[in-house]
Amino acid sequence: MKFSRAAARNGRGITWDFAGTDLPAAVASVPWLDRVRQECGAFEWVTFAYLAWLEAIVLLCHRNIPHAGRYFAAHALVATALACLIARAARSRSEFVRFARHWYPLPLYIFFFEELQGLVHAIFPGWFDRWLVAFDYRLTGVHPSVWMARFASPSLNDFMQFAYMTYFLNLVILPAILYARRDRLAFWTMMTSTAVANYSIYVIAILLPIESPYYSLASLQTKPLTGGGCTALIGLIERFGRVHGAAFPSAHVAGSTVAMLAAWRYRRWLFWVCLPFFVCMCVATVYGRYHYVADVLAGFAVGAAGFALGTKLTGNPAVLPE
């Protein structure tokens, strides 16, 4: 579609017709929008694409989403805030603005994950856990989280919960090293890859609602997972942040897989340091009744695909955010 600004003004403002300049060129003529467009990196384009998908889901499935208008407004606000930060960072020399420009993706993932609580049934009203329960049973001959409960003890529970929480360190340690060394290409490759993996998981969570063994196999669990400090901390986090749904694929496994692949590529020594924790975390997702084995396997696949696509999308370091 084409448009141009009419030469004449009337008393009520500017009139427009649809002949002349291409739409992208017209948008580029607005300095603020042009600055945003020029400064957007691969991460932002992926994020804007995910926000557009969310808005489409909210519009099309609003009858199944409580307070759909709030979600629509929240997503529009996030997009606007993101555009403002990009535009501001393009002109500012403030270290704080620069820091925010690089690190805002991490809280964004938390926001998008937490909101799945209200979006997970936007399309399908029920759960599809029976498929994954059957897959795990055919693969192992048992219900893995139920079988693992025989080994439960307060000390093992605490260790497994600690291993489960190392996911958050995986998202921070390597990017922090790359940021400190000003390795822009490696930093934004990891950030974009993590975004692709996480957004893929959020999309799948809405298309295939899975509630996790914690809920679906509760009647088979006979031993509570009690422990000490780490168990208590996870209990506190789960009390305020547990999302009922969004279990498939495992976001912990997918995000950590991206981190491990990036460490192998950019800081090989860090890969070997983190590998034991990564393996323990994958086991902990099943032991702690957060995920099925199928979730873990799918998490590997999504994380690997996310890193491959993120590496390809990041492209030329000359156009990366400063």
Characterization of this structure:
There is one protein chain. With 322 residues, the protein is mainly α. It has one domain (40-319). Helix content is 69%, strand content 6%. The protein has a two-stranded antiparallel sheet with strand order 1-2. Strand 1 and strand 2 (13-22) form a beta hairpin. It is globular, with a radius of gyration of 23 Å.
Describe, in short, the structure shown.
The protein is mainly alpha-helical. It has helices spanning 23-28, 31-39, 42-60, 68-91, 95-103, 105-114, 116-119, 129-140, 144-148, 154-170, 173-180, 184-207, 213-216, 229-241, 251-266, 268-287, 293-314, and strands spanning 2-10, 13-22. It is built from 17 helices and 2 strands.
SS elements, strand count: 2
| Biggest sheet features | 2 strands, antiparallel
The helix content is: 55-70%
Count, helices: 17
Relative strand content: 5-15%
Name the shape in a single word: globular
The average pLDDT score comes to 85
Low-pLDDT stretches are 1-29
Amino-to-carboxy terminus distance: 34 Å
In oligomeric terms, what are we looking at? single chain
Strand-pairing-aware structural class: mainly alpha
Order of helices and strands: EEHHHHHHHHHHHHHHHHH
Strand order of the largest sheet: 1-2
Whole-number tally of structural domains: 1
Radius of gyration: 23 Å
